[in-house]
Amino acid sequence: MKFQRIKGTRDIYGKEYEILMEFYQRAKKTMDKFGYSFIITPTFEDVNLFIHSTGETTDIVEKEMYVFEDKGGRKVALRPEGTPSVLRAILENDIEIPCKVAYFANMFRHEKPQKGRFREFYQLGVEYIGYIDPLVDFEMFLIIRELMDIFEVKNYYFEVNSMGCIDDRKRYKEELKNYLSEKLEVLCNDCKRRFQRNPLRILDCKIDAEKIKDFPRITEFLCDGCAEHFEKLKMYLNKNNIKFSINPKLVRGIDYYTKTVFEVKSGRLGAQDALGGGGRYDGLMKIIGGPDTPACGFAMGMERIMLASEYKLPYEKDLIFIVYTSPELKEKAYNLYLFLTKETLKCDIVLDTKSLKSQMRRANKKGAKYVVILGEEEEKMGGYKIKDMEKGEEKFIKKENLPDYFKNI
Ligand SMILES: [Zn+2]
Ligand SMILES: [Zn+2]
Fold first, then answer.
1. Is 122 a domain residue?
2. Of 83-97, 133-147, 206-220, 312-326, where does mean pLDDT reach its minimum?
3. Which of 168, 232, 282, 407 is positioned for an S-S bond with 294, CB 3.0–4.6 A?
4. b/e burial code for range 158-188 (CB count within 10 A of at least 16 → b)
5. Do 326 and 296 reside in the same domain of the chain?
């Protein structure tokens, strides 16, 4: 019997794995510098955590969440995003607020699989909890700018909007509904349904975009506090040369956002152009049973980042391949391999003894920079032959000089 991956999932191996881990390590360094600590939360949570926070009428909860009953009869969900879990963890573990938290984790959404979009995917997430100050929002952009640098993503850009506070949104929703009610007849069926449950999401509709292009802008409905917050953020961004455009349609598909929302996009990705996004979520902590606490954060999809990145793995220049001219030398060769791994050099060896030629082929295929050859001749002379695969040069080296030889290159 043969098995296949579940649709929308994938295996990450080889170069892709190396790049993902490299990016993780680079991100970790950046987040350390900004004073964030990493957290690992469970892969699955009480389904209600997401229903209450992400929002019942969002696509994520309504259509995309993996929900199942465990053997204890609990209804659990594979996490579709990280923010609710992180807030839950902060409350449950009494982590002192203000706090800065980051995570690198797999998420699950039952979406239509397409380029750069999988049903299990990896996110880098960042949450800054405890301050209402627009400097916090600004810091998200600063961090993303640095991450784009270290991920070697070049042509990215920011889109920004403000969704105001709960009161602003209530007023705006009424106004938007008034406007849409006159067009409802001609809108698609999804939008007709959204009109009652979540009219803001009609702004996301690709089919009806043209028909509603003169929709009222939410930024016209901000209270003084929210307007000032938005102005300050824009000022910080301008002062620091962070380029952005205002996208009045940007309302993010998640209920908990307040004030600032933003996305970072790449010109390299076509329709699936969002690398990540986030915003402020001042009401969320209270919604999940905590104190009224402002917060701001973002998450980035690592699959998209890897598509947009120009980073290339360096040639495997450190790989040392050990070959031997006869089966009798295999154990000796293996001992040398073990010895070199203790020197923390990157080594490999073929164990199903084939001809020297086929071993060399294997070394070449693996991208080895050096091949150490154990032969009877060299054995008698107390050393090895070393071949530099790039230059094609060979030289003899005494056994005792081998570790130093590799240390010095
Ligand atoms: Zn407001
Ligand atoms: Zn529509």
1. yes
2. 312-326
3. 282
4. bbbbbbbbeebbeebeebbeeebeeeeeebe
5. no
Q: How far is the CA of 172 from the centre of ligand 1 (A)?
A: 11
- Do 79 and 227 reside in the same domain of the chain? yes
Domain of residue 350 covers 320-407
pLDDT tens per residue across span 106-163: 999 999 988 888 999 999 999 999 999 999 999 999 999 999 999 999 989 999 999 9
Neighbours of ion ligand 1 (CB under 5 A): 164-165, 168, 223, 226
Q: Which residues pair with 83 in a beta bridge?
A: none
Same domain membership, residue 296 and residue 340: no
Nearest one of 80, 104, 141 to 264, comparing CA atoms: 141
If asked whether residues 303 and 348 sit together in one domain, one would say: no
DSSP 130: S
For the CA of 205, the nearest ligand:
2
Spacing, Cα 228 to ligand 1 middle (Å):
9
Angle at 286 between CA 284 and CA 288, to 5 degrees: 75
Relative to the alpha carbon of 229, which ligand is closest? 1
In a domain, 279, yes or no: yes
Asked whether residue 218 is assigned to any structural domain, the reply reads no
How many structural domains are present in the chain?
2
Report yes or no on whether pTM surpasses 0.85. yes
Identity of the residue numbered 202: I
Both 251 and 365 in a single domain? no
Q: What is the CATH number of the domain that holds 335?
A: 3.40.50.800
- The confidence score (pLDDT) of residue 115 equals 83
CA of 379 relative to ligand 1 center, distance in Å: 80
Q: Ligand 1 centre from 224 Cα, in Å?
A: 7
- Other C-beta atoms within 10 Å of 129: how many? 23
Contact between residue 102 and residue 36 where contact means Cβ atoms under 8 Å apart? yes
**Among the bound ligands, the one closest to the CA of 187:** 2
